[in-house]
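dude i think i finally got it to work??
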Amino acid sequence: MKFHIVIERDDEGRYVAECTDLPGCLSEGEILEEALENINEAIIGCMKSRLKLAGEKLKIEKFDASKYYGALGEGSMDEFDECEEDLLARYRSLVPSQSE
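look at this
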């Protein structure tokens, strides 16, 4: 999964990074590399939080978000698509179809 990131310099010369695909997901750094590292950590934190919240809202029995954290733990988003598909399948099984 890829995210769109915007990086700008503020008035004090710090780099401010924002993931526009995840509203409110911001970070910063004194150098560009630090800002990139920090926004990656922020994205992982946002995704973990949203996965946990989704499990709670959908009232998935014994929802164990740590299963999904594993795909995010190394800072890699490559496996996240599979986790997202699993969550969508669980959601669809709990929510009646609009065509019914």
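The chain has a mean pLDDT of 77.
im so relieved honestly
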